[in-house]
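Have a close read of the entry that follows and walk me through the local backbone shapes. See right below:
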Amino acid sequence: MLNLALPHPSFASRFWLGAVLVLGLSRSVLAFDVQEAGSSAGAPPPPPKGTLFRSVGEAIREGIRGLKQGDPTSAVEPLTFAAREGNVAAQWKLGRMYAVGEGVRRDDYKAYQNFSQIVNQRADEAPDSPQAHVVAQAFVALGMYHLNGIPNTRIKRDPGRAQEMFRYAAAYYNSAEAQYQLGRMMADGTLGAPDPQQAARWFNLAVEQGHYLAQARLGAMLFNGEGVPRQVPRGLMLVMSAKSQAQASQDAWVFEVAEFCSSRATEDERRLAEAMLNKRARGTR
């Protein structure tokens, strides 16, 4: 069993005060920082003139109907109305639509504005609330935009800000994706010298939640003894598990890591890794 001395995810509910003091991520601070980056206080663009919905509920139903019918374009107007009224689900869905170009022309800045609304309004959402998962996703999405920047906008590359976003979502909301992104930044030395030990700890938290990309990164570190004691069978098992969940079209590096580790493991190590993987699979049924 891998022993990485990072507090168990259940510490999140006790992390709130420390996160506010250390990271400066109180609701008011977040609102100021996010709004400062964009125009109109980070609000999504208004719906076309003449839009009439009697309630947010009606707008949401119209938006869902359009999406279910395979007509995302018709969902934009009602979702925009609901998003401007503060509906978190609409803000998230509309942000994702702009981020990937679903029913609208892709516009990362508009996506950023919608995700910002969620963070501004819900930064102190309780980790066990029904909205917590969406809020955590919004933090991660904003973190990615700050990590890479958005060309031709005020959102410039700011890895430090990205790390704050990831750390908050990882610790307070126990977000596996945020934990993985934090691990990546520490492993790659995005803000300075690489810190493989800390990277392994964050990867391990994400692995405990089944994050397959974290499995690939932690597995490779265990296989090579990078920042953690070398455990070839366990490392190979994690890499094999990641490969079984990866998609060749977008996760080519996972397949490369799996091939590298498998080709350098002994036959006994491969058999032991396969046995561990089978035992792991039976345990999740």
The chain is about 65% helix and 0% strand. Confidence is low (pLDDT under 50) at residues 1-33, 35-41.
